[in-house]
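Today's session is about reading a structure prediction critically. Students often jump straight to the picture, but the first step is always the sequence itself: look for stretches that repeat, for charged clusters, for runs of hydrophobic residues. Only then move on to the predicted structure, which in these notes is written as discrete structure tokens rather than atom positions. Here is the chain we will use throughout the hour.
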Amino acid sequence: MRYKNFFLNVLRGAVIGISMIIPGVSGGTLAVLMNVYDKLINAISDLRRDFKNSFTFLLPIALGAVLGIVAMYYPLKFALTYAPFPTVLLFIGLMAGSLPKILKDAYKGGFQKIHIVSTIVPLAAVIGICFIPGLGEADLSVNMPVYGYFLLIIIGAVASCALVIPGVSGSMLLLIFGYYNAIFGAVSALKDNFGHSLLVLFVFAIGIIIGFFSIAKLMKLFLKKFPQGTAWAIIGFVLGSLPAILITYNGNFPEHTLPSLDAVQLIAGVILCLFGATASYTLTSFLEKKAAKSNEQPPRIEE
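Below is the predicted structure for this chain, in token form.
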């Protein structure tokens, strides 16, 4: 059972890792939909206080995230270049199919009028981020100024929001600040300019780690002090991320906007969306029934 959980968490980490390289898709949202968000936040926040258990939980997820990025970087780059619309709709379907479960879980704790505000504000915020104009491409070349490294730490901290706050896409934020192409350009440049590219990625990773732990502690506080309000806020983030993906897609692939798509891309997109929704709904329903069945079984009495 322990090894089974380890490999399941590796797979969950891979899904979160893949989301990090797709503009508009939030790793935090996928963590919620895979039912590991609360555990992830608690493990990050308690890493110093309960290092062994937190590290044991985080290790396979971190390993899976790295494997997911490495394994899917070029395939996703190819898919987003030649078939961005069907690829994006597949992810929308996967996210939409898991929504009934998180709505059901939120309703278990009750719903009050104030929760309407808790839902609408983050929903509007996620969609609003999509309309922030880009600030131009960042310069991460060998000739970049010294302050550029400090800016890179700040950008890494901002991008880490995507891993902790559902609905916020790190790739989308990088696009807005002009660092998306520059960061992934540094990844591609490792084979030609290893030393500088590695330094750029290392500094960026420091920023991600700093932001990751800081924001996780803040989210844990909200989950503890305002559990129901936070639960509905998370639903707002998730709901907002669905149109946000399409808005981001439309801005990042102007040559593939909806009116100019051919019938093949439209049909493939709809089929993949339905497939993703059906697959994720079936999987979440199966896991929910399995968890309920295990809870109903009386504990075994050791002789």
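Discussion point for the tutorial: Confidence is low (pLDDT under 50) at residues 297-303.
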